[in-house]
Design a protein that fits this description.
With 90 residues, the chain is an alpha+beta fold. The protein has a domain at 3-13 and 40-85. It is 43% helix and 17% strand. It is built from four helices and three strands. The chain has a three-stranded antiparallel sheet, covered by helices on one side. The radius of gyration is 13 Å and the shape is globular. 13% of the residues are buried. The mean pLDDT is 92.
Length: 90
């Protein structure tokens, strides 16, 4: 996928995965039929915004605004690529 295609992509959680807060672990988890993944705060913040209605650039802008940071695009791109390769995002 070229950078332009990546920037215009609207990532969404694959239908077999569910993102939820787990009180017992005091963390966000990603549930799927074979198990679960405990997420760090950054991963959870990214996945919460992967709803299929926001481009990756919009998602990055929202994260930067929400957390008062700049320059996180490379890390967000890397995480989205990883999550896509793992099948979490489509």
């Amino acid at each position: 996928m070229s950078p332009t295609e990546t920037d215009l992509a609207k990532p969404t959680l694959h239908r077999t995965f569910r993102l939820q807060w787990e009180d017992a672990q005091q963390s966000w988890i990603l549930l799927y039929p074979e198990g679960m993944v405990t997420l760090n705060d950054s991963a959870a913040a990214i996945l919460q915004r992967c709803d299929g209605s926001h481009t990756l650039d919009m998602l990055i802008d929202d994260l930067q605004s929400a957390f008062g940071v700049q320059g996180i695009a490379p890390e967000v791109h890397a995480f989205v690529k990883h999550a896509t390769e793992r099948g979490w995002l489509v």
